[in-house]
Amino acid sequence: MKLRRTLIRWIGFIAVGIRRTASRATDTARQRVRFSGIGVAAAIALLIMVTGLGVGLATSTTVYDDEIDYWIVPDTDSPQSPLIATDNTQFSSVHETNDRIREHEGVDSSTPVLSQIHRVEANGTSEYILVVGVINTPELDRVSGVDSNSLTPHDPHYSNREYNGKWTGEVILSQGAADLLTVSSTDPVTIAGNNSFAVTAINNQSRSAGDVPTALVQLSELQHVTGSETYDQADQFVVGTNSPTVQSDLEEIYPQSSVQSRGEVAMSETLNSDLSLALALTALIVSLSIGTLFVVTTSGLEIVADRQQLAILSAMGVSVRSQLRLVGTQTLVLTGAGGLVGTIGGLIGIRVINAIAVRTITTEPIAISHPLFVGYGIGVALLVGLFSLPFLLVVARRVSGGVPE
Is the separation of the CB atoms in 295 and 36 below 8 Å? Predict the structure, then answer.
């Protein structure tokens, strides 16, 4: 019964707080309330935009794409695994292993991926570019955001477990890489000192991979150029599937490895990115500081100006504790509403940032938006309200005459 009365009382406080906040925002104290709300909204919008930019930067160089569902990556905590090359955190015997993966029921596509930064030369221009080696199949479609359809399927240079098959020399460039090298289709290019490559196609990267200058080549040919053919090495496997049961099967392929979903890889990249972490922490601190200062200043002035109404409440028998609860409820309602508006503004801001970036700097969006940002923005706004409460409650207590409890 006591719990029920307490719940009813708090529901009443919340209802009165919402009504008083709406009344003040539209009539009695429009300027102060709106300034408080705008301050919180601006801080949260900044937070959402910077967070979206940080996540976009953190995940822009991964090899994942929307069609790929799982990644098998070496377990770096277990360097002595016999399935991993001795001196590097790479898998070995990857062509044979890839055949085993493709035999699993439910696997639509699979390829080992070898990703390295190399100097690429063409037409007298030399640039460092992300070179990605894959085994192309009709089902693969995209890796590292680049369409792989122009690569000859099944990595022909690797034949009968030997590197003596047909050399294709095929290179698919992202638009950013082609612009850097000023090349077009059929132009010869040199990768890591090997001049037996030629541009097969140029295409735009998908938005999930950003605009990292990328060259897509046959896995065995990149292994030959880099010396990785000795142990048939690659950095990871990407596996496309519509079956959630495949993950447990993939975990048995390499016992000392990790099988991650698309979301886990993106989150891992984000957490491992110092730049992303620095941006997120800075944005959070700035947002909390700016929002708290706005709320404390404007709401504090409002409480002082509202001295007469607090005195009337005291004369009516409303206790100091109830008045403080009402002030706290109004503060949280105000910051929550400001957080919602700011979150919407931040998501719109991300769209604006991407539009400007596409027109001026890159060919693809650089910031990422996610539905979780809505909860994040509102949660931080409520945190601003909680940080503001001690000061506001002290001010309210001093200006209120109060009645005995």
Answer: yes
Range of the domain at 198: 76-255
Q: Is 301 a domain residue?
A: yes
Instruction: Give the C-alpha separation, 300 to 388, whole Å.
Output: 10
Provide the whole-model pTM: 0.54
Residue 114 is assigned to a structural domain of this protein: yes
- Both 219 and 282 in one domain: the answer is no
Sign of CA dihedral 375, 377, 382, 386: positive
Long-range contacts of 33-36 (CB under 8 A, 24+ apart): 33/298, 33/302, 33/334, 35/294, 35/298, 36/294, 36/295, 36/298, 36/299, 36/302, 36/334, 36/335, 36/338
* Angstrom distance (rounded) from CA 376 to CA 294: 20
Taking only the tens place, the pLDDT of each residue in 101-139 is 998 888 888 999 999 899 999 988 999 999 999 999 988
Roughly what angle, to the nearest 10 degrees, separates helices 262-271 and 30-59? 100
Residues near 185 by beta carbon (within 8 Å), at least 6 away in sequence: 199, 200, 201, 202
* Angstrom distance (rounded) from CA 148 to CA 218: 10
Q: Would residue 221 count as lying in a domain?
A: yes
CA 111 vs CA 71, 132, 335, 382: distances in Å: 10, 11, 49, 46
Long-range CB contacts for residues 353-360, cutoff 8 Å, separation at least 24: 353/49, 353/52, 353/53
Q: Which residues face 110 on adjacent strands?
A: 239
Please tell me whether residues 83 and 37 are part of one structural domain: no
Least-confidence region, from 99-108, 144-153, 182-191, 268-277: 268-277
Asked if pLDDT for residue 98 goes beyond 90, the answer is yes
Q: Domain count for the chain, please give it.
A: 2
> Is 126 in contact with 52 (CB distance < 8 Å)?
no
pLDDT recorded at residue 291: 84
